[in-house]
Task: inverse folding
C-alpha cells in the first residue's frame, strides 16, 4: 500500500523516579534516542507533535529548544491519558495529509509523588450556601455524591462488568490475579518502574485504595518519556535496506470519543468507545483479534484490564473472566497482554504512555525485546483510554 | 417565608417526600442531571424536568478508602438503577464494608442534613440506603 505509515525510530526512557531530569529533559532524552534509532537528526524532521499534561504550556517548543530548532511546526496536544497516542496520531495525520514526510512525536510526564490525580481544591469558600455550576451544587460533591476520581471510577467500571455479565458471585481475588500477572511480567522489563513479582496474597493484603483495587492494582505514578519517529512510504523507500528492515508498519491508527449512551454522563463509559476504536482498527489493518501476537492495553487499574479484554474483542462478549482464567493473557498464553508489566508495574507517566505501549509492541515485532521477547511476534495492538473520554488504538505489523 | 434548607444539588427537590428530578430531552427522552445547552444524544434544545423513582437497585459500587484532602473516608460510591434511570450517589446508612453490599440489592432514596451556613440555612444531602434497613425502621 503506497500510503502506508511506518515507525522508523522509537524509544522509551527508564520509567520511575527520575530526579536527574526535568520533564523537558525526559522528553529530549526519548526524542534524541528515537532519532538515533531512526538514523536521523532534526534536519530530517518535518513536524513535531508533543504531549505533556501536567506542566508548562509550550512543552513541545521547550523540547525543540534543547533538541534543535529548525523552524518546523510544533503541535502541542493534550488528551487526558491518551495524550501520547494523540501526539503520535497527529504526526501520522500530518503525513497522511501530505504536509510532512517525517514526523517526531514525543510525550513526557513527571508524576513521582503526585498522589491522587484529579483531586480538586474546594471552590466553595463563601459564608452562605450558593448553588454553583451545572448541577447547582452548594458544596464540593466529591465523596458526597459518589466519586469522580480515577480509582473509584475504574473500580465501579470493573464491578459493573461483573454485574452485567452474571459474575456477581465471582471472588474479587480475580482482580488481584490480573495484577499478579502484570507484576510477574514486569520482572523481565528493566525499564519498568516496579520490577518485583508480587503474590496474589501480597496484592490482596496491600493498602486498599478503592474496593476492589488495592495499591498494586493501581497504575504507578512515575516519571518517564517516550518518542517515535514516523515516516511515509515514499520517504521510507529512499532509506537504507537496514533502516527499512527495522521499520514497523502502522496498519491502523484510530482515535475515538464516547458516543452518547444511556448513563454515560453518570459513570464514564470506557467500553463503547474502545469497542468502536477496536472495530475500526481491525478493519483498517485487515486483521482480527485472533491475529494478535501481543496486546498492550490500558490497565490503569486491574479492574480496567478485565473490561478491555472484552472491549478489544480478545474474548467473547461477557467472557472476560473465563478468558483470563484460561491463562490466555499471560506471556506464555494465546494472547499475551501487557508483557511490559502494564501501567500497574511499568508505570503510567501519562503523556508518555500512548507512545511507550507502541514502543513495547515495536520492540517485539523487531525481535529486540531480549528476555521478554514474544517469539515470532508479527502483529501487535496498543490501546489507551483517557477519561473524558478518548480512546487510541494502534495496530502494528512487522516489516515483510 | 424564611428559607431554612437548600439542596446539595438543584436536581434534589426538598418536597415531601424529597425526590430527584432529571432533565429530560423532549425529542429523544435522554435524561441528564446537569444544566444543558443541548441534548448530547439528538442535539435538540428543549427539555422538561421529570421525577425520578426514589427506589432502585445497586448497579455498581466501590468503597473509596483513599481520597482527596477534606473528603471523609471510607465511603461507598455507586450507581443506582432507578427504574431505568441511572443515578450517581453514595450508598449510606450501611457500614462501608463490601460484605454488606450486593450488586442488584434494592435501595431507596434518603436525605440528611450536612451543615448550616452563616444564615442558619441547612444544606440537605442525599444518598441511597438498603431498602431492608428502611423497612426495619418503620
Result:
Amino acid at each position: 500500500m503506497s500510503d502506508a505509515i511506518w515507525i522508523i525510530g522509537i524509544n522509551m526512557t527508564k520509567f520511575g523516579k527520575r530526579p536527574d531530569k526535568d520533564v523537558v529533559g525526559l522528553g529530549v532524552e526519548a526524542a534524541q534516542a528515537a532519532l538515533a534509532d531512526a538514523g536521523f537528526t532534526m534536519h530530517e524532521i518535518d513536524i513535531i507533535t508533543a504531549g505533556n499534561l501536567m506542566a508548562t504550556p509550550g512543552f513541545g517548543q521547550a523540547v525543540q529548544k534543547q533538541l534543535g530548532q529548525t523552524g518546523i511546526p510544533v503541535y502541542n496536544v493534550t488528551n487526558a491519558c491518551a495524550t501520547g497516542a494523540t501526539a503520535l496520531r497527529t504526526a501520522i495525520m500530518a503525513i497522511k495529509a501530505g504536509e510532512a514526510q517525517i514526523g517526531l512525536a514525543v510525550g513526557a510526564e513527571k508524576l513521582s509523588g503526585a498522589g491522587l490525580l484529579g483531586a480538586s481544591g474546594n471552590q466553595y469558600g463563601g459564608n452562605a450556601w450558593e448553588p454553583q455550576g451545572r448541577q447547582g451544587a452548594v458544596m464540593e460533591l466529591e465523596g458526597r455524591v459518589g466519586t469522580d476520581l480515577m480509582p473509584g471510577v475504574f473500580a465501579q467500571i470493573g464491578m459493573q462488568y461483573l454485574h452485567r455479565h452474571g459474575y456477581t458471585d465471582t471472588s474479587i481475588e480475580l482482580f488481584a490475579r490480573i495484577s499478579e500477572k502484570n507484576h510477574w511480567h514486569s520482572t523481565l522489563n528493566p525499564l519498568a518502574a516496579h520490577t518485583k513479582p508480587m503474590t496474589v496474597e501480597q496484592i490482596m493484603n496491600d493498602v486498599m485504595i478503592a474496593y476492589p483495587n488495592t495499591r498494586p492494582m493501581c497504575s504507578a505514578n512515575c516519571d518517564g518519556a517516550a518518542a517515535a519517529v514516523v515516516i511515509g512510504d515514499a520517504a521510507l523507500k529512499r532509506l537504507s535496506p537496514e533502516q527499512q528492515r527495522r521499520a514497523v508498519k502502522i496498519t491502523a491508527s484510530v482515535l475515538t470519543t464516547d458516543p452518547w449512551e444511556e448513563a454515560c454522563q453518570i459513570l464514564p463509559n470506557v467500553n463503547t468507545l474502545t469497542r468502536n476504536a477496536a472495530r475500526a482498527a481491525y478493519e483498517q489493518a485487515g486483521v482480527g483479534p485472533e491475529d494478535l501476537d501481543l496486546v498492550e492495553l490500558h490497565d490503569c487499574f486491574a479492574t480496567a484490564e478485565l473490561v478491555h479484554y472484552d472491549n478489544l474483542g480478545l474474548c467473547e462478549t461477557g467472557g472476560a473472566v473465563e478468558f483470563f482464567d484460561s491463562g490466555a493473557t499471560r506471556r506464555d498464553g494465546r494472547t499475551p497482554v501487557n508483557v511490559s508489566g502494564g501501567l500497574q508495574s511499568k508505570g503510567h507517566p501519562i503523556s508518555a504512555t500512548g507512545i511507550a505501549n507502541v514502543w513495547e509492541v515495536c520492540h517485539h515485532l523487531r525481535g529486540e525485546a531480549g528476555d521478554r521477547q514474544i517469539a515470532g511476534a508479527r502483529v501487535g495492538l496498543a490501546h489507551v483510554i483517557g477519561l473524558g473520554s478518548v480512546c487510541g488504538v494502534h495496530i502494528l505489523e512487522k516489516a515483510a | 417565608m424564611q428559607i431554612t434548607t437548600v439542596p446539595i444539588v438543584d436536581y434534589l427537590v426538598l418536597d415531601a417526600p424529597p425526590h430527584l428530578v432529571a432533565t429530560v430531552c423532549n425529542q429523544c427522552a435522554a435524561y441528564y442531571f446537569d444544566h444543558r445547552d443541548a441534548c448530547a444524544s439528538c442535539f435538540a434544545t428543549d427539555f422538561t424536568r421529570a421525577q425520578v423513582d426514589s427506589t432502585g437497585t445497586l448497579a455498581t459500587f466501590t468503597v473509596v478508602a483513599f481520597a482527596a484532602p477534606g473528603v471523609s473516608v471510607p465511603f461507598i460510591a455507586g450507581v443506582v438503577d432507578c427504574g431505568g434511570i441511572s443515578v450517581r450517589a453514595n450508598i449510606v446508612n450501611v457500614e462501608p464494608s463490601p460484605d454488606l453490599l450486593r450488586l442488584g440489592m434494592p435501595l431507596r432514596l434518603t436525605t440528611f442534613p450536612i451543615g448550616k451556613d452563616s444564615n442558619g440555612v441547612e444544606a440537605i444531602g442525599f444518598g441511597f440506603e438498603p431498602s431492608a434497613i428502611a423497612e426495619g425502621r418503620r
Notes: The mean pLDDT of chain A is 95. Residues 206 and 214 of chain A are 6 Å apart (CA to CA). Chain A has two domains: 5-114+222-250, 150-219+252-398.
